[in-house]
Amino acid sequence: MTEEKKGEEARRSPRRPAGWRCILKSPTTGMMQGRVENASAQGFLLEVASTLPMGEIETLKVEVMFSGKRWEFIAQAQVRHNVFRTSSCLVGVEITKITAKDAKFLHDFSYGII
To answer: Are 15 and 23 in contact (CB under 8 A)?
Structure first.
């Protein structure tokens, strides 16, 4: 079994492409704009300008555009991994604090219920 397949099987919920804009507030790097590449019920893959310290708790303001509607929500998330790209970085974060309403949306979104 490949490593990629093992990782996918270990996921608690599926990922789904998102493309939402976000603003990230980091205790060490300050504010930066980014994009939510994909979302799951437990976290996000963010495209940002630089890497973030592993384990650090970030505050995210996510602008969701879905089914012709636009709204924002705030969440806190812990940095789990960083990947360098040519002109940006991908940062995987696990949600640590979110409202019940927004958590339900992410669950339903990631599982394709909505």
So the answer is: no
